[in-house]
Design goal:
By secondary structure, the chain is mostly beta strands. The chain has a domain at about 220-333: Ribonuclease Inhibitor (Leucine-rich repeat, LRR (right-handed beta-alpha superhelix)). Helix content is about 10%, strand content about 15%. The protein contains 3 helices and 15 strands. A 15-stranded mixed sheet has the order 1-2-3-4-5-6-7-8-9-10-11-12-13-14-15, covered by helices on one side. The longest helix has 21 residues, at about 1-20. The two termini are about 40 Å apart. Pfam families: LRR_4. One of its GO terms (cellular component) is cytoplasm. This is Protein phosphatase 1 regulatory subunit pprA. Keywords: Leucine-rich repeat, Repeat.
Length: about 325
């Protein structure tokens, strides 16, 4: 029932967006190399404004009066903290649903308290060092992106209990914390951080998790994520495959570039399609079919190159065992 309700909301939003496009209320100025908007007409009935890849260093004050604006993208511009300081006073924009500030020159999280209906908030690829101020963001937030910044602590997120996607990759996090209330979270992206231990804080609705390029030595911690379909753990220091046997919905498992010597704990998984084991220490393919017995007919892609076992036409050997295999490393069937 909840999923049906969420789908209905999405369909309504998409239909609304299409209606606005038909009415000509969408203005896309992507890549126009604008330094300002003084020669651009900004209708007060505008619903979507895309200013991606320009040279803007200030916000045009006319934006403050476009009360119908739902989506605003200022991605890849030259905006600074001072550039965004007028935002809290532009209360006519309170209905904004998507705000994209990706790839600018921000060092602090902008004040977005006036956007009471915000669904998407993106501040990735800036130089933000703290999430202080995120507590002012609307609890309606569904997607929050803050990758490639200078963040060190997960904080001020406790009220985001409707969040479905959280992207915090390429930062400086050492600890997974303060995620407890995100009971609807489906995607968690934490690659390229400094995390040593998996702590999902009781989250059970996750469908996709990435902890690539961290400092993990164990893959324990995912046992209760029974909805999990995609798990990315490459480029860590993991030596043992464990804690995976309960993940019966898993379709993609990436444990490449670790220290794994034995494939195990996935024999009962019946939906695996992609299995990435390359750049490990697997000595032999003997018993490999038993190790992945549950997904004998579902596996379509296996990466196993740069293991000691990857010799003597290993791709053809695997193809003879797995009837629906379509790819082994770079070999396509």
């Amino acid at each position: 029932m909840q999923e049906d309700a969420e789908n209905a909301v999405r369909m309504e939003r998409d239909a609304s967006a299409e209606e606005h496009q038909e009415e000509g209320l969408v203005l896309d100025l992507t890549g126009s190399q604008l330094h300002d908007l003084q020669d651009v007409e900004l209708p007060v009935t505008l619903c979507e404004l895309d200013l991606t890849a320009n040279r803007l260093s200030t916000l045009d004050t006319r934006l403050a009066s476009i009360s119908s604006l739902c989506k605003l993208s200022l991605r890849q511009n030259l905006l600074t903290d001072a550039s965004l300081s007028p935002l809290p006073e532009w209360t006519s924009l309170s209905s904004l649903q998507e705000l994209v500030l990706r790839d600018n020159k921000l060092t602090v999280l902008p004040d977005v308290r006036i956007f009471t209906k915000l669904y998407v908030f993106d501040v990735s690829f800036n130089e933000i060092s703290s999430l202080k101020g995120l507590s002012n963001a609307s609890a309606t937030l569904k997607e929050f992106y803050a990758s490639k910044n200078e963040l060190t602590k997960m904080e001020e997120m406790e009220h985001l209990h409707e969040l479905e996607l959280l992207e915090l990759g390429s930062n400086k996090f050492r600890v997974m914390e303060n995620l407890n209330n995100m009971v609807t979270l489906k995607e968690l992206w934490l690659g390229r951080n400094r995390i040593r231990v998996v702590n999902l804080c009781g989250l059970k609705s996750l469908v996709k998790i990435s902890l690539q390029s961290n400092r993990l030595t164990s893959m324990l911690g995912f046992q209760d994520c029974l909805c999990l379909e995609e798990l990315y753990l490459s480029h860590n220091g993991i030596a043992k495959m464990e804690g995976l046997s309960s993940l019966h919905n898993l379709r993609i498992l990436d444990v490449s570039s670790n220290k794994i010597a034995l494939v195990k704990d996935i024999a009962e998984l019946a939906r695996l399609e992609d299995l990435w084991l390359n750049d490990n220490q697997i000595a032999s393919l003997e018993g490999f079919d038993r190790a992945v017995a549950g997904s004998l007919r579902t596996l379509t892609t296996v990466y196993i190159e740069r293991n000691p076992c990857a010799t003597n036409e290993y791709a053809l050997k695997l193809k003879s065992v797995f009837p629906n295999l379509q790819q082994v490393d770079s070999v396509l069937f």
